[in-house]
Structure formats: structure tokens, C-alpha cells
Amino acid sequence: MAHDYDDQNIFAKILRGEIPNDTVLETEHCLAFNDISPQAPVHVLVIPKGAYVSYDHFAAEASDAEIADFTRAIGEVCRIKDLSGADAAGGFRVISNAGPHGSQEVPHLHMHVLGGRPLGRLLDRE
Ligand code: 5GP
Q: Is pLDDT of 1 > 60?
């Protein structure tokens, strides 16, 4: 799959400070912010600062430091939002959509961190 990155996508503009965001966490290599159209009481997007289109692109080309930072940033968002999967009433879902089959709207890698209510099954059956 080609990974041509469009630097005019909305998250690239957020990273450049051209569009505001409601920041939850910033790390050396990542930014986490609240989704503008939340699908659950907690809906945070975690993005790498690097120009990666999708998870497979990131996994293939990001440095070990970027990958470690991204993974830990997602965990830190869970901690900040009190979503521990070990709690009887807690838990969360992490989703990354890619390409047309994944219904990806913004072509900059992002992890959706969702929680705060029971989230149902992973996929609707059609
Ligand atoms: P995708 O369908 O690409 O996985 O998800 C894109 C997500 O980005 C959607 O949940 C959408 O609500 C969110 N989004 C789109 N534009 C903006 C924006 O300008 N600011 C924020 N915070 N979220 C956005």
C-alpha cells in the first residue's frame, strides 16, 4: 500500500497550530486531544507528530522511540481519563481506522481511545 502523506489534512494543521485543539496530553512525539464529535463520554484521539498516514505506515517506518512514545501516550491517556481495564466498572476501546474499508476520514494516523460507558460489540453486523 502506498503511504503518500497529505500535509493539508486537518490533524497536520492541528500539529502546526493552525487549528485549535483541546489537548489532553503532549509528549515528545505525540499529541492527544478530545475528538470534536465524541462518540462516548471519553473520546480522545492520540496522534504521532510524524507524517504517518496509518498504523501500518507507522509500524513500518517510525523509529523505535516514536513507537514507544505512541504506545505509552495511549496508556497515559487511559490513566488520565481513569479508564483502567482492570476496574470492574472501567475499561476502554482503542481503534485505528485505515483506508476506505476502515472508514478513515483523516489521513494522519490516529488512535481513538473510547470509554466512559459500555461500548457494545466491536462491529455492527450488516
Ligand atoms: P476517522 O474516521 O478518520 O478514524 O476519525 C476521524 C476523527 O476525527 C472523527 O472522530 C472526527 O470527529 C475527528 N475530527 C475531525 N476533524 C476534527 C477536528 O478538527 N478536531 C478534532 N478534535 N477532531 C476532529
A: no
